[in-house]
């Protein structure tokens, strides 16, 4: 929706294709607050945040095609094939913005030994059951993974009457925002088992018990540390995977993050194709997703209007202690907003962008808290051959 708005404000005709019957994506089932603090300067629930954009879209007369999905793309012919209840359509475009988001990593990808009973849910599916379908997934639950949605579901299930016996995280630190750790676990006395993982599940028909163990530095189970939980529900919050399949044969994909590689304008390796949101990197705030969506939509429209030609793309290189970095290229038409996740928790460090265009000290950084900052385009010399981003020990 942000991309559609960014494009429409440049005066182009916009078609927004949404597979659900209502715009907003996963926001519609995220009934907790905490959204919009950056984008709207106001704390909103997920549906309220989505509604703000719906009203903005209505004010711009953006055409929305709900209950439809893009079956196939032919980007070199600038054509999309769309399937809906009313038929199949081929749509020509001058520019395309892909905002397909991410999918949850499923249980089958975890290679956990044991039975395959009912009662194992991804956190997003459990959230939909509770918040949209009005069904509880079980009576007693264990949660694997301390990402934000796992933490939020620990609180939500507790409030709805389920017993949450704990949250298990294989890393030595939480995967979600610190505020969610406090508000969702500490406030409800839900145990957090760091440096642990699930090592087995049992159940005839329905889940009956889950085994967990401590893990070493290589995430291998430590003998003699096993714990057993009698539960009928296992909730998985074990990461998101960018949805890039529809374009994976046409544009460059990051082999580490599995997301689209784009510039700061949202442009992919194809000049007429742009991407934004969790199909590029996994953000921790929807506000960041909206900001980058708006930017990608704006520049897609400028491309369609032939007002801007692609400029030289300066590579942005991840340096020391960088785990996730966006963008991977810089184009001079837009300020350079950088998003960084560090590889591990660090104290007394400095984020440095070389050659000498940005530096900032941090008392503490961690992978669960995204670092973001903006460098105005006028501060970036056009003669650069590369831009290096790294996190180094502060010697000051």
| Helicity, as a percent range | 10-25%
| Anisotropy-based shape | globular
Structural class label: alpha/beta
Stretches with pLDDT under 50, minimum 5 residues: none
Integer count of domains: 3
* CATH architectural label of the largest domain: 3-Layer(bba) Sandwich
CATH class identity of the largest domain: Alpha Beta
> What is the number of helical segments per DSSP (H or I, 4+ residues)?
6
Q: Biggest sheet: strands, sense, closure?
A: 5 strands, parallel
Rg over C-alpha atoms, rounded to the nearest angstrom: 22 Å
> What percent of residues are in strands?
25-35%
Which features would summarize this protein structure in a list?
27 strands; single chain; globular; 6 helices; 396 residues; alpha/beta; FAD/NAD(P)-binding domain; 33% strand; 5-stranded parallel sheet
Protein model, in words:
This protein has 396 residues and is α/β, with parallel strands linked by helices. The protein folds into 3 domains: 1-102 and 239-310, FAD/NAD(P)-binding domain (3-Layer(bba) Sandwich); 106-238, 3-Layer(bba) Sandwich (FAD/NAD(P)-binding domain); 312-396, no CATH class. The chain is built from 6 helices and 27 strands. The chain has helices at residues 2-8, 46-59, 123-131, 148-159, 178-184, 286-304; strands at 15-18, 33-35, 44-45, 63-66, 68-74, 79-84, 87-92, 96-98, 102-104, 120-122, 140-144, 163-169, 192-194, 196-202, 209-214, 227-230, 233-236, 240-242, 273-275, 314-318, 322-326, 329-330, 336-342, 346-354, 358-365, 371-375, 387-393. It has a 5-stranded parallel β-sheet. The protein has a 5-stranded mixed β-sheet with strand order 22-20-27-24-25, with no helix packed on it. It is globular, with a radius of gyration of 22 Å. The two termini are 44 Å apart.
């Amino acid at each position: 929706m942000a991309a559609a708005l960014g494009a429409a404000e440049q005066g182009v005709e916009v078609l927004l294709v949404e597979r659900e019957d209502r715009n907003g994506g996963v926001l519609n089932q995220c009934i907790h607050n905490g959204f919009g603090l950056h984008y709207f300067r106001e704390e909103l629930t997920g549906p309220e945040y989505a509604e703000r954009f719906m009203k903005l879209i209505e004010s711009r007369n953006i055409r929305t095609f709900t209950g439809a999905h893009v079956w196939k793309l032919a980007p070199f012919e600038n054509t999309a094939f769309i399937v809906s209840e009313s038929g199949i359509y081929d749509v020509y475009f001058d520019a395309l913005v892909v905002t397909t988001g991410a999918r949850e990593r499923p249980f089958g990808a975890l290679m956990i030994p044991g039975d395959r009973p009912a009662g194992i849910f991804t956190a997003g599916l459990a959230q939909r059951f509770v918040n949209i379908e009005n069904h509880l997934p079980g009576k007693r639950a264990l949660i694997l993974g301390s990402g934000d949605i796992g933490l939020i579901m620990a609180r939500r299930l507790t409030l709805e009457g389920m017993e949450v016996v704990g949250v298990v995280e294989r890393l030595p630190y939480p995967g979600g925002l610190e505020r969610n750790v406090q508000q969702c676990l500490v406030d409800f006395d839900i145990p957090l088992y760091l440096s642990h993982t699930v090592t087995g599940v049992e159940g005839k028909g329905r889940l009956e018990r889950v085994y967990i163990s401590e893990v070493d530095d290589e995430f291998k189970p430590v003998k003699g540390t096993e714990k057993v939980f009698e539960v009928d529900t296992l909730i998985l919050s074990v990461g998101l995977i960018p949805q890039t399949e529809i374009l994976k044969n046409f544009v460059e994909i990051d082999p580490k993050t599995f997301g689209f590689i784009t510039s700061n304008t949202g442009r992919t390796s194809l000049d007429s194709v742009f991407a934004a949101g969790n199909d590029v990197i996994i953000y921790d705030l929807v506000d960041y997703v909206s900001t980058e969506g708006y930017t990608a939509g704006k520049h897609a429209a400028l491309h369609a209007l032939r007002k801007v030609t692609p400029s030289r793309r300066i590579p942005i290189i991840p340096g020391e202690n960088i785990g996730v970095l966006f963008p991977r290229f810089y184009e001079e038409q837009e300020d350079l907003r950088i998003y960084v996740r560090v590889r591990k928790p660090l104290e007394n460090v400095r984020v440095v962008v070389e050659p000498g265009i940005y530096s900032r000290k941090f008392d503490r950084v961690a992978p669960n808290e995204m670092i973001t900052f903006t460098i105005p385009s006028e501060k970036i010399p056009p003669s650069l051959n590369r831009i290096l981003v790294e996190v180094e020990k502060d010697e000051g």
